[in-house]
Amino acid sequence: MISVLKRLTAMARAYAHHPDPRVAAANMISLLVASNQPFYPLYLFWLVSADITAAWFTFLSTPFFLAVPVVARWNSVAGRALLPLAGVGNTVLSAWLFGTDSAVEIFLVPCGVIALLLFRPQERVIALALGGLAFGAFLLLHDAYGQPLAIYSAKEYAALARLNLVSASMLTAFVAILFSGLLAQAERSADAARHEKAR
After folding, report:
1. Which residue of 2, 54, 142, 177 shows the fewest CB atoms closer than 10 Å?
2. Is residue 8 domain-resident?
3. Per-residue pLDDT tens for 6-54?
4. What is the pLDDT of residues 59-106, one digit of tens each?
5. Which pLDDT tens digit goes with each residue over 136-161?
6. Does some domain include residue 26?
7. Which of 57, 56, 59, 86 lies closest to 70, judged by CA?
8. How many domains is the chain partitioned into structurally?
9. Distance, CA of 183 to chain centre
10. Is residue 5 part of a domain?
């Protein structure tokens, strides 16, 4: 069992690998999200309600998350852009499925943060457009979803909101730690270059 897990981990790392650290970060985040999606119906069943019918529709976004590394090998900008686009699309779908009382729109926050972090200064227009898309999705659609597919009690909605808030917070924290590591790596490279130049 351990050897199988090690093999799967090695395969995932190889699939996510890219010489561009920003692309590699996008690949890693996309695979993390995709790998967690199968557990969402289980979390919903354990923590919210036995009615998990709506959760199965969230798998419609899984292929897009899994495709990020493939698209990035073809075009790094398109691959990076696909990640927040898939995230916003999944969040909008989930808001329609579960309703805004589920607080699932909180996932638009990490979508916007990811969009702003994945692109370089010369690519800022793309970053701002994708970040604006995440903000606009909340601003324009929040009151436009109508009746959700899943109807829960007030107590169940409170539990679902907690689940979504915790999940979105953990994703945002993971992204922050990931990019903190990239900054630290860049600082070490700059320090090494200065040291080499001073010799």
Report:
1. 2
2. no
3. 777 787 788 888 899 999 999 999 999 999 999 999 999 999 999 999 9
4. 999 999 999 999 999 999 999 999 999 999 999 999 999 999 999 999
5. 999 999 999 999 998 999 999 999 99
6. yes
7. 86
8. 1
9. 20
10. no
Q: Where in the sequence is the domain holding 127, given as residue range(s)?
A: 18-198
Within a domain: 12: no
